[in-house]
Amino acid sequence: MSVLVFADSNNGAIAKSAVEAIHYGSKIGETTVITYGNVDDSALASLGNYGASKVLINKSINEFDGQKLSKLIRAAAESAEVIVFAMDFSGKSLASRVAAGLNAGLVSGALGLPDTSNGFVVRKAVFSGKAFANCKINSDKKVIALMPNSIQVETNDASASVEEFNADLGSSAVTVKEFKAKGGGGVLLTEADVIVSAGRGLKGPENWGMIEELATEMGAATACSRPVADIGWRPHHEHVGQTGIAVRPNLYIAVGISGAIQHLAGVNGSKVMVVINTDAEAPFFKAADYGVVGDAFDVVPKFIEKLKAFKAQQ
Amino acid sequence: MKILVCISKAPDTTAKISFTDSDTKFSETGVQFIINPYDEWYALVRGLELKEANGGTVTTISVGAADYDPIIRKALAIGADDAVRIDTQPTDAFQVASEIANYAKDKGYDMVLCGKETINYNGSQVGGMIAELMNLPYVSLAVKLEVNGGTATIERDMQGGTEVVEISGAFVLSASKGMAEQRIPNMRGIMQARTKPLTVVPASGSLAMTEIVSYELPPAKSACKMVDAENMDELISLLHNEAKVI
Q1: ipTM
Q2: Do residues A133 and A202 both lie within one domain?
Q3: What is the chain B residue with the closest CA to A178?
């Protein structure tokens, strides 16, 4: 099968979630990547390391413009049977639009490779992570948006060919005025392998120092529960849960969060969950892999101290 | 200002999830249905706020059978002026979006608002598909929407921050947390909702592109391993040797 993968190129670099999508595409068939903006040719050629055969780049688009990008992707998808996006911010904006334009079925939030033994069936999480659905795509062209952090990326030594790609992109009714970067500059929540999250159990915003220290030690992103974001202890973009951001890190450490069903809906895709809470009856322990009943103000500093010792030995 | 808000039905967030018919259908027994929270709290309420500030109408649109009517009445109680239900049982987002686009395309709406995703299918599909099918710009994951004359200023979540965009003319938007605050319908609203128009229109016959062949529940979680608060060495050892995540 011939596969087209859209790779977002925010700030001139190919996103981690896009690298996963490229590798995923290469497991399905001969993979061409379409991207845009100002990315080094060498960086594009190195996408061969993840399985891309060819990389198409459009240099006339320099910012995220959904209307132009969907036209570009559709033009590049002419001979593709499967079109893959990462289910990240850009994929959520583009995959649906491209699928409708191609008259193609879309499975968004795919967790694994398509099963082609009986049609073309892709597994995804539904009911906010409380169940899975096997979705069959019945159209000729098939569109998949891959959930970030759901496949292991392997690399090889191959190099991809790079070509400029132009298409009639028309005009756009949307003007980008400004990009407001989130403060902090640390690890992005949606790309983090490890997340350290805290809730009301921390008693006040002034107590987040140890959470940030733990996150720094672990190379982790920081997150928080909804009440903490609502009362303004932490910024809204850190809120994970049903109405906030859904995350799927390898390790999620929850400190002083009771684990309401709405919070779990945003974190239940995590591979391993550690819960630290004073209340042994907190519902979060039922969902966790490892639990510590204790006061965060005792446990977290001790954990940091032991973690530093462990890292020093490695 | 003519505003169209897409309303979907979803099981209550605390509903028990189970399946019937050899795991091919969601079991609705004992499940309470609500308006999909993103459609209600953010898209509908922001639409109402804009109408209150600028004048105009808010119409809700849903694609579903008569079992949708209670949640549509709730949307009317919250403040929508009228409602449209396209009478069919859709099986995927493409079918929903096609039905809405076919209905809305010649009606002159200034904006079509939807939630960023439903809490049952988590697809984030309908808004972008409507935009493509109606040939309108689409702004996904919007957290702020202001309208000044014929120009809308929208803030949306993007990788690493928020982007501010401007649009002149009609558009489709998917609403995320931050757009508005939840509104509880008052008694007057509930009374008025009974007599507000809910128009049922036949489907245009759009077809689905995907189907769910089966559902699965996650495997039972093994019990949480408890670690003594005094023994953080053990926790580190478990995370390193057993879970292999550090």
Answers
A1: 0.95
A2: no
A3: B164
